[in-house]
Amino acid sequence: METSILKFERPEAFWLLLLIPALLLLFLAARYLRRKAMRNFAELPLFKVLMPLESFTRPWLKMILLQLALLMIVIAIANPQTGSRLEEVKREGIDLIIALDVSNSMLAEDILPNRLERSRQAINRMIDKLTGDRVGIIVFAGKAYVQLPLTTDYNAARMFVSTINTNMVPSQGTAIGEAIQLALNAFDPEVERNKAIVIISDGEDHEENAITKAEEARNQGVTVYTIGMGLADGAPIPVYNEYGKMTGFRKDKQQNTVVTRLNESLLQQVAAAGNGAYVRANNTRSGLETILGEINKIAKSEIEARIFTDYENKFQLFIGFALALLILEILITLKKSSWETKINLFEKKS
Question: Any long-range contacts for 147-156 (C-beta under 8 Å, 24+ apart)?
Fold first, then answer.
């Protein structure tokens, strides 16, 4: 049973949340410049005497309200929707699991903008062309993890794809065999559908069981396809700091720059063992279009699913929250009123 109670009509709007830290940085810079100017005029404690109405906390309160209002506006633009009508429908398709390599070598830029980003773009285009198929996502490096179980909710699939990065798997490596085994476990054995696995990787596998696992998949009636993401000449692996700025390239113990190259032979052998096909990506094509054409040749079976066929927009609620926060922010003045300065809870009475 496939249901999606909540979804966002425009999930790409969440990129606007980057405005929140940008606005905070501007606020901190303005506060720093203001305090610096005040120090040039007099010592800060003296300002409590010279400017008794000055508030040092209200600007922060107003900023917090603005940040919350901006958050509500972004959510409203994304337009959360809740399912309002649940229906049972019949769909024809296959069960497809995409296993994506997220090891550091996928940051190499021999395929622009880099191997991983190109893979994510290709997966999104592939999801756009699915009709009735259930899709799942596995990420792997030194270990493999299910990122998204099989679903017909393509909006959710695209949202999960947008969050994939090389920090998701702490251990490095390219465990293709483990990814295939995890995909086999993720398929529902009680559902009589044709099944396929698509592996997107540069093929730098440091384990020896990938071909064996592909053969096991074939014996279970699961077809394994592979896409080589990278070029034969290879490229160095960029290193980024915590702020996302490239600081150089990865080096080995002898301080030589590590160059990652496409292991095309392994990926071809895995595809052959899995009774599938291999395609090499380059800077003009991702290869997923070719694989999708091969997948469409697989006989599709019918499955019943209960899904929401109608959704209600909920952006109005968040617009209301944003307006309330903005009105409250306007009502709060930067300076104290004169009657507030007369209140002193700690004043000693004679």
Answer: 149/186, 150/95, 150/97, 150/186, 150/187, 150/188, 151/2, 151/4, 152/2, 152/91, 152/305, 152/307, 153/2, 153/4, 153/7, 154/127, 154/128, 154/130, 155/4, 155/7, 155/8, 155/11, 156/4, 156/7
d(CA 310, CA 313) in angstroms, rounded, equals: 10
Q: Is residue 286 a contact partner of residue 227, using CB atoms and an 8 Å limit?
A: yes
Q: What whole-number distance in Å separates Cα of residue 235 and Cα of residue 230?
A: 9
In single-letter form, the type of residue at position 268 comes to Q
Sheet with 80-93, side-by-side order of all strands: 6-8, 80-93, 301-313
Structure tokens at 101: 């390599």
Query: CA 126 from chain center: how many Å?
Result: 17
Residues 6 or more apart from 282 whose CB is under 8 A from it? 111, 231
Q: Which domains does the chain have, with CATH numbers?
A: 6-82+312-341 (no CATH), 95-299 (3.40.50.410)
Tokens of 258: 């590590």
2: buried, middle or exposed (CB in 10 Å: 19+, 13-18, 0-12)? middle
Radius of gyration of the chain (CA): 27
Tokens 């930067």 correspond to what residue?
A: 334
Distance CA 172, CA 140 (A): 9
Tens-digit pLDDT string for the chain (350 aa): 444 567 788 888 898 999 999 999 999 998 888 777 767 766 666 665 555 556 678 888 999 999 999 999 999 999 988 866 666 666 678 899 999 999 999 999 999 899 999 999 989 988 988 887 889 999 999 999 999 999 888 888 998 999 999 999 888 888 999 999 999 999 988 777 789 999 999 987 666 789 999 999 999 999 999 999 998 889 999 988 887 788 899 898 888 999 999 999 999 999 999 999 999 988 777 677 788 788 777 756 555 666 656 778 889 999 999 999 999 988 887 766 554 555 554 455 54
